[in-house]
Amino acid sequence: MSDADLRNRIKEMMVKNLMLQITADQIADDAPLFGPNGIGLDSIDALELVVMLEKHYGIVIKDIEEGRPAFRSVRTLAEFIQARHAAQPG
């Protein structure tokens, strides 16, 4: 899966799973996911994202410090997923 395809898939899953009031096309790759200058996700949304990563990508985030850098934007989330998959044996 290409970088762009992965980012688009993440956006679509976020819109659907988090019931966002925007479309996937309205989410910029580098827009902050949390806070007033981003798309406005909250701590409940963060938990939903963690569940989404585990369900769709088999990635388990054990603590907030591990996940915090990944949840800055769609781009950092995609990079996190790709890095985890590259690190898996097989």
Write the layout of secondary structure elements.
Layout: H1 3-17, H2 43-57, H3 64-67, H4 74-87
List descriptors.
globular, mainly alpha, 90 residues, Non-ribosomal Peptide Synthetase Peptidyl Carrier Protein, Chain A
Percent helix, as a range, is 40-55%
Topology as H/E string?
HHHH
The count of DSSP E runs of length 2 or more, i.e. the number of strands, is: 0
Percent strand equals: under 5%
The total of helices stands at: 4
Main β-sheet description: none
Give your account of this protein's structure.
There is one protein chain. The chain is an all-alpha fold and 90 residues long. The chain has a single domain (3-87), classed as ACP-like (Non-ribosomal Peptide Synthetase Peptidyl Carrier Protein, Chain A, Orthogonal Bundle). It contains 4 helices and no strands. It has helices at residues 3-17, 43-57, 64-67, 74-87. The longest helix has 15 residues, at 3-17. The mean pLDDT is 91.
